[in-house]
Amino acid sequence: MKKVLSGIQPSGQLTLGNYIGAMQNFVKLQHSEECFFMVVDLHAITVPQEPAALREQSEAVAALFIAAGIDPAKANVFVQSHVRAHAELGWLFTTLANMGELERMTQFKDKSAGKESVGAGLFVYPTLMAADILIYNADLVPVGDDQKQHLELTRDLAHRFNTRFGNYFTIPDPYIPKVGARVMSLDDASKKMSKSNPNAGSFIALLDTPDVIRKKISRATTDSGREVKYDPANKPEISNLICIYSHCANMTIADIEARYEGQGYGPFKKDLAEHVVSVIEPLQTKYNDIRNSGEIHQILKQGAERAAVIADRTLADVKERMGFLPPR
Ligand code: ATP
Ligand code: MG
């Protein structure tokens, strides 16, 4: 049985990109592997969060994990800040990382671009992510394509620790879907869909109402042609929509192209919206049940307790290897 770890930031409403790129694999992997799925609140505060919104979104992300099909009897679901060892190991890894390698992170460049003041947390956050993964000695990390570079850094830091302090950490592998690893924004197909994008029209939120979903898809940017053809280099907008369609309708790209041949974009977008709604509606029903029942708090408590046993042990081992004086 492999160990699997991943997390999603409560930095806004979860999107279809998070679902297709990451959560669907969480659900898949829980049946065969030992899984740890976190609401990474310590990551979310690397950009300013309003306290009440952070609290609400943290609970919402956890409830969406369960609504999407994660079974808390099979996987550990918890909030990152509830397992205190993450922050402490994160600091230890920050001291192992170099400025140069953190400066190369494209996500840091994207998220800090054009900002007058950039938080130091945003800069060092990949070292905390490394701690999150390595603290459970994870073998596999199901993520979208945008996290590949951070995972490379995690592997480098694990290797560096092992070289300096003796072999201890497993070197983890990314687990990235073949199709849907980078769902693009609806308003700009050169950017990935992101829940923290201030333009809500750029993403489909898992909690958007069916009418909002229909409206967002009908307004999604396309080229001025009319051929429904998968061609990411020349038709990035339509290719992105085809990819979403393929996931939500469980149809191959070739079948989708054949179905809309000669019909233009109108019927394609209309059907796409219904397929997205058919995936999201049952998820929302489950989500509402979970939120109303209040059971999420118990799930998170148990998840954190189980996770902390492993995390505390790793932290103690690491501190011993690094030469910290143990308390007596
Ligand atoms: P933020 O804008 O706050 O960074 P986000 O939408 O990028 O939010 P994260 O919490 O950073 O979401 O990432 C959660 C998981 O979803 C990660 O595994 C990430 O790779 C994946 N993911 C995020 N956006 C996409 C996307 N557009 N397509 C596929 N996977 C994605
Ligand atoms: Mg992100």
In short:
The chain has helices at 16-29, 41-44, 51-67, 85-94, 99-103, 106-112, 120-134, 148-165, 210-219, 236-249, 253-259, 265-293, 296-322; strands at residues 3-8, 34-39, 75-79, 140-142, 173-175. It is mostly helical and 328 residues long.
Query: Poorly predicted ranges (pLDDT <50, ≥5 residues)?
Result: none
Count the DSSP helices.
13
Q: Which architecture of the largest domain per CATH?
A: 3-Layer(aba) Sandwich
* Total strands: 5
Characterization of the model:
By secondary structure, the protein is mostly helical. The protein folds into 2 domains: 3-176 and 294-322, Rossmann fold (3-Layer(aba) Sandwich), CATH 3.40.50; 200-288, Tyrosyl-Transfer RNA Synthetase (Orthogonal Bundle), CATH 1.10.240.10. It is 54% helix and 7% strand. It contains 13 helices and 5 strands. The protein has helices at residues 16-29, 41-44, 51-67, 85-94, 99-103, 106-112, 120-134, 148-165, 210-219, 236-249, 253-259, 265-293, 296-322, and strands at residues 3-8, 34-39, 75-79, 140-142, 173-175. It has a 3-stranded parallel beta sheet with strand order 1-2-3. Strands 4-5 form a two-stranded parallel sheet. Helix 1 (16-29) links the parallel strand 1 and strand 2 (34-39). The two termini are 36 Å apart. Adenosine-5'-triphosphate (ATP) binds at residues 8-9, 11-12, 15, 17-18, 20-22, 143-144, 146-147, 181-183, 192-196.
